[in-house]
Amino acid sequence: MNLKLISKLLEELDNVYICNSDNLENVEKELKYYDELKRELNEIYERKGRAAMYRSKCRWVEKGERPTKYFF
């Protein structure tokens, strides 16, 4: 799923179905779906974080500190 879509669904679930629900006995299904979406969102953030670290490392290897004439 898309990051924005998951965030929107989480907000909708939280505001409409869980927090403002009059019948708290039937909220279990929504809570399970909410937990699944939160887990998926965390996985997306972890993948994006790993990708950012990899890009940063590549950038450092390519353009990092290079010796100057002084060291030669």
What does this protein structure show overall?
With about 70 residues, the protein is mainly alpha-helical. The chain has helices at about 5-20, 30-65. α1 (about 5-20) runs antiparallel to α2.
Q: Care to give the gist of this entry?
A:
By secondary structure, the protein is an all-alpha fold. It has two helices and no strands.
Mean pLDDT: 83
| Total of DSSP H or I helical runs spanning 4+ residues | 2
What string gives the helices and strands in order?
Answer: HH
- Please give the largest β-sheet: none
Strand percentage: under 5%
Structural class: mainly alpha
Defining traits:
0% strand; mainly alpha; single chain; 72 residues
Write the layout of secondary structure elements.
Layout: H1 3-19, H2 28-63
